Amino acid sequence: MRPGLAHDILVLSADHLFLVAVSASAAVAIGVPLGIWSARHPRPRKWTLGFASVMQTVPSLALFGFLIPVPWIGGIGKRTAIVALILYALLPILRNTVAGILGVDAAVRESAVAMGMTEGQILWQVELPLAARTIMAGIRVAVVVTVGSATIAAAIGGGGLGEFIFRGIATVDTTQILAGAIPAAVMALLVDGGLGWVEKRLARS
């Protein structure tokens, strides 16, 4: 290992984690409320799920490229990378939120209505607790996918562990490639394990 490589790995790992944390948090903040709204409105549901599905099918590098010329959100750097990562993370969160809310037994909801609960109370006290595990499963998938997709951010100056990978490919340096790939893989495994634990706790509650 060359001198300073360990320090560079730590710095770029922190940068990578920042990209993941910001984009995943924004995707949750957008996806969960949008999923709840879509579950309540069947007609627009196909459009919201359709848009998220289209974003998921676009190759990651192509999506980064498409966003660069877009005014206000485009350009070279972290901003464009974060927007692209949010779009990629939306589908599993949105889809699982819709599935979780619609999966609540109608009899349970009718019982809550009969008890005099308002729509807001039914949502917070009945539907969301029952749908929590399904929603968390979507968030788990989205965050793990974001950890992997964030490596592409380096291609447009977004930073992260992808800098090692692209630099290593350009110079045919296996050490640099592994310096980016291994921490990214470990990060994905840790995130998957941590969110999996939360998901199991929600299943028991």
Percent range for β-strand residues: under 5%
CA distance, first residue to last residue: 47 Å
Helix content: over 70%
Overall shape? elongated
> What is the number of E strands?
0
Largest sheet: none
Put simply, the count of helices is 8
Order of helices and strands: HHHHHHHH
What does this entry look like structurally?
The chain has 205 residues and is mainly alpha-helical. Helix content is 81%, strand content 0%. The chain is built from 8 helices and no strands. α1 runs antiparallel to α6, α2 packs across α4 and α3 packs across α4. The longest helix is centred in the first third of the chain and has 36 residues. The termini are far apart.
In short:
The chain is mostly helical and 205 residues long. Helix content is 81%, strand content 0%. The chain contains 8 helices and no strands.
Features:
mainly alpha, 8 helices, about 200 residues
Furnish the topology, listing elements before pairings.
Blueprint: H1 5-40, H2 42-57, H3 60-67, H4 78-102, H5 106-114, H6 119-149, H7 162-171, H8 174-204
